[in-house]
């Protein structure tokens, strides 16, 4: 970085001693090295372990031979290097600059600091605010087990459940060391009015040392509930067996022996306990649906109580199923996209990342990502009639014919020179195989006879978090002094995930004069989507951030190609590698790459194919058939298209007269807007939302949307055969839960016939014979429709240039009203308040003062 070569270092009197073992420091060699030096600068990450030992080792040297020791502080006592974090290369370089005597050419050092300064500034000012926070795997038992009742909180522990810390709704914090779970509460409970806490404790930790924490807690007399999260694996570190191999019954016996009086077991399948022997007396078994009630009861139980939450780790379940160690789950879920309202209730209830957004002409809806779903089925708790389960269906997508392609005759690019170390950065989502592709590239370098190092910054990121894989190539191993790509030194960034690539950590490694960047334009939703149903992941905005830091930038939908050509998103990363190679940005030969893929030994043909698809995408994309983005790829409809599309839908919904009513009101809005504005925003909003409120999804409509052929097509694209079950809360017969909400029940395949019949009676809608129309929900929906259309009438008669913006805001209010039953009703109440607030400024055009801050959607 500073441009000091070994000769110059010799001239300046600089020498380096690399400590092999930091503690205990071998005294003789280091004393010999330091004797007679003027100054020693100790560079070590975090605490001054070496520095303090060095002081004592050199203490007895005569004054004339004992150097000044600097490190965490300089000789004047000013802070030089951090003692709490890893030290970056620019920090080291800056410390060295202060220490090296004058009289050397600092121009390269100055240029270096300019370069890293620019990269650092970009990382600060240009980084996306969107963060890829690690999250439980799809179907993880902790999605349910770590929920706490309102008014309670939980103390965190070590294990995957630690991620509850990142989820605001889990009210979980204060992580302890392994075996210390809940111990802070032993000291705290005396000094607070808070009567109780929950404590999360994994089964691996329980076996390791957590049982001792429970013993201490019992002795202390504190009131607390341990949730022993029995997922039958040490999941966070890769699914190892729990050493003790204790069963839930044995854990229950042990905690009873420790003095815990109240012990319950909660599980997703109570039938597993039908013949279980050895449970201590009084231990009750509950279904996970009762988790809330169980927790409410235990938080009022004095002393230490224990919930053993028994549900296998979802990833381990998938692994065991693949290896034939357990029968795969037979039931999968599909969401009828036409029925879905995009309310997000299923995401909130399941906390599951496999419930993904899918963009449609009617707005954002939900779909189940069948590749990542681990069939936990808790999304079924989403309150709507969109959910269907299929038992014993075959995955249709696996049998679909793969499109043919050929990479024959593609030009062979010149590969980059290795005169200097060459730096590659992969950015990706944890758990999607980025690190494997990085390892394959490093292996290819070895096959070529070159040196390569591969360093993965992952940690908890394996669980859907950000992954940065640093790969460094060189002719000789000793040219690679550090595994990390230094700041402003990436030669190429392969952005398998744009959110990570546009983050500060990645931007800091890029240099606008050096780095080429290639990005997968498909953005996998982050966990924020679970809490914010409107969260947008705008590929273009993220791309712009990366592009600003790159000398060359290109983007394409690698995930759509992976899905379309190889039926698995896992190949996205290898496609990206192929793309970068074909652009001449990877310093490995084609022969070595193919060999490395073979040596990797997993899905060799498919990985070869993926690499070649990437090459074609880079060199001759017209050879590939454009593939549909599974999360929706809908071009915006023109206003005419939008109006006609909705009118046609309303004809199907009710009849042509109903569609004409729609056309009339939209035409009125259009006529009123035309003299004022040409962008048609108001008309578009009215066309969109007038349809939404007119086509409210009552029983006839849901029945029609299951039988008009679209659902059959959606189903056939995903499954073959199998027994269908429809999950519905039929208003006339459904029971109510403790909150007064209707409970969903499943209905067999005969329901399709029922739907067919019901759909035929849509003509009764709104008449005296419409039995469903008498429910409160339908009355609210009709009123919403009529009020909204009346509101549009008023807008058309009083519209001015001044109140146009307010008119658009009013016309968009129904966007917030989504879902079914109590979910929709809650949304409706909130929307009414907002609408009333907006109307207060009408017709003057005064917008409410509390404006929402608009942050660029990404
Ligand atoms: S590895 Fe298992 S326990 Fe850990 S987050 Fe994934 S599903 Fe949950
Ligand atoms: S309507 Fe709501 S709960 Fe139902 S599938 Fe759609 S987003 Fe999920």
Automatic annotation (TrEMBL):
CDD domains: TPP_IOR_alpha. The keyword Oxidoreductase applies. Residues 331-363 form the 4Fe-4S ferredoxin-type domain. One of its GO terms (molecular function) is thiamine pyrophosphate binding. GO terms for biological process: cellular respiration; small molecule metabolic process. It comes from the Bacteria. Keywords: Oxidoreductase, Pyruvate. Pfam families: DUF6537, POR, TPP_enzyme_C. PANTHER family: 2-OXOGLUTARATE OXIDOREDUCTASE SUBUNIT KORB-RELATED (PTHR48084), SUBUNIT OF PYRUVATE:FLAVODOXIN OXIDOREDUCTASE (PTHR48084:SF3). NCBIfam families: PRK13029.1, PRK13030.1. This is Indolepyruvate ferredoxin oxidoreductase family protein. It comes from Hyphomonas adhaerens.
């Amino acid at each position: 970085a500073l441009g000091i070569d070994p000769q110059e270092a010799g001239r300046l009197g600089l020498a380096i001693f690399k400590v092999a073992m930091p503690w205990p420091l071998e005294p003789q060699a280091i004393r010999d090295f330091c004797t007679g030096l003027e100054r020693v600068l100790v560079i070590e990450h975090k605490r001054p372990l070496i520095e303090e030992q060095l002081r004592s080792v050199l203490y007895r040297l005569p004054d004339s031979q004992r150097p000044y020791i600097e490190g965490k502080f300089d000789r004047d006592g000013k802070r030089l290097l951090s003692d709490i974090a890893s030290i970056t290369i620019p920090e080291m370089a800056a410390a060295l600059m202060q220490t090296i005597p004058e009289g050397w050419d600092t121009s390269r050092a100055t240029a270096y600091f300019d370069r890293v300064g620019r990269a650092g500034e970009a990382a600060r000012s240009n980084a996306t605010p969107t963060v890829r926070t690690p999250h439980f795997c799809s179907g993880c038992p902790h999605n349910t087990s770590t929920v706490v009742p309102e008014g309670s909180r939980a103390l965190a522990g070590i294990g995957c459940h630690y991620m509850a810390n990142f989820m605001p709704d889990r009210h979980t914090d204060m992580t302890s060391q392994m075996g210390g779970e809940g111990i802070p509460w032993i000291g705290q409970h005396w000094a607070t009015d808070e009567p109780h806490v929950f404590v999360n404790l994994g089964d691996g930790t329980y076996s390791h040392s957590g049982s001792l924490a429970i013993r201490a807690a019992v002795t202390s007399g504190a009131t607390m509930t341990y949730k022993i999260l029995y997922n039958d694996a040490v999941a966070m570190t890769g699914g190892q067996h729990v050493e003790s191999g204790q069963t839930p019954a044995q854990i229950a016996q042990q905690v009873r022996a420790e003095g815990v009086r109240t012990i319950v077991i909660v599980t997703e399948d109570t039938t597993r306990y039908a013949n279980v022997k050895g449970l201590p007396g009084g231990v009750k078994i509950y279904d996970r649906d009762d988790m809330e009630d169980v927790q409410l009861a235990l938080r009022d139980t004095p002393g230490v109580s224990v919930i053993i939450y028994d549900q296998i780790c979802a990833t381990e379940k998938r692994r065991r199923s693949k290896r034939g160690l357990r029968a795969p789950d037979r039931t999968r879920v599909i969401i009828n996209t036409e029925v879905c309202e995009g309310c997000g209730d299923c995401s909130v209830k399941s906390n599951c990342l496999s419930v993904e957004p899918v963009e449609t002409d009617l707005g954002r809806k939900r779909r189940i990502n069948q590749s990542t779903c681990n069939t936990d089925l808790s999304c079924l708790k989403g309150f709507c009639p969109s959910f269907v389960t299929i038992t014993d269906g075959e995955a249709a997508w696996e049998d679909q014919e793969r499109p043919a392609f050929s990479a024959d005759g593609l030009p062979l690019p010149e590969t980059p020179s290795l005169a200097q170390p060459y730096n590659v950065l992969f950015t990706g989502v944890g758990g999607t195989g980025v690190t494997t592709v990085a390892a394959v590239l490093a292996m290819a370098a070895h096959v070529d006879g070159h040196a390569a190092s591969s360093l993965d910054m992952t940690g908890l990121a394996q669980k859907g978090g950000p992954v940065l894989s640093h790969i460094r190539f060189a002719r000789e191993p000793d040219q690679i002094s550090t595994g990390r790509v230094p700041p402003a030194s990436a030669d190429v960034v392969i952005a398998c995930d744009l959110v990570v690539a546009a983050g500060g950590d990645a931007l800091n490694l890029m240099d606008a004069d050096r780095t080429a960047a290639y990005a997968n334009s498909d953005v996998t939703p982050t966990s924020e989507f679970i809490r914010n149903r409107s969260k947008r992941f705008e590929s273009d905005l993220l791309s712009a951030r990366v592009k600003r830091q790159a000398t060359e930038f290109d983007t394409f939908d690698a995930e759509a190609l992976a899905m379309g050509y190889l039926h698995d998103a896992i190949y996205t990363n290898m496609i990206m590698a192929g793309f970068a190679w074909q652009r001449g940005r990877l310093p490995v030969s084609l022969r070595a790459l193919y060999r490395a893929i073979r040596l990797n030994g997993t899905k060799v043909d498919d990985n070869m194919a993926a690499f070649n698809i990437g090459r074609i995408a880079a060199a001759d994309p017209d050879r590939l058939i454009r593939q549909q983005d599974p999360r929706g790829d809908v071009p915006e409809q023109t206003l005419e298209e939008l109006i006609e599309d909705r009118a046609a839908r309303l004809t199907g919904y009710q009849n042509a007269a109903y569609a004409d009513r729609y056309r009339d009101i939209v035409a009125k809005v259009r006529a009123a807007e035309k003299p004022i504005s040409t962008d048609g925003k108001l008309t578009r909003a009215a066309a969109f939302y007038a349809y939404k409120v007119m086509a409210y999804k009552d029983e006839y409509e849901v029945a029609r949307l299951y039988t008009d052929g679209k659902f059959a097509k959606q189903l056939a694209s995903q499954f073959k055969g199998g027994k269908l079950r429809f999950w519905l809360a039929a208003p006339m017969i459904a029971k109510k839960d403790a909150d007064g909400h209707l409970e969903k029940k499943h209905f067999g395949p005969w329901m399709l016939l029922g739907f067919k019949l019901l759909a035929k009676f849509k003509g009764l809608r709104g008449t005296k014979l419409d039995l469903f129309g008498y429910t409160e929900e339908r009355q609210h929906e009709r009123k919403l429709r009529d009020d909204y259309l009346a509101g549009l009438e008023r807008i058309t008669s009083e519209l001015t240039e001044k109140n146009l913006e307010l008119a658009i805001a009013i016309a968009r209010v129904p966007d917030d009203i989504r879902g079914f039953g109590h979910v929709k009703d809650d949304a409706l109440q909130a929307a009414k308040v907002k609408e009333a607030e907006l109307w207060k400024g009408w017709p003057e055009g005064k917008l409410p003062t509390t404006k929402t801050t608009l942050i660029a959607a990404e």
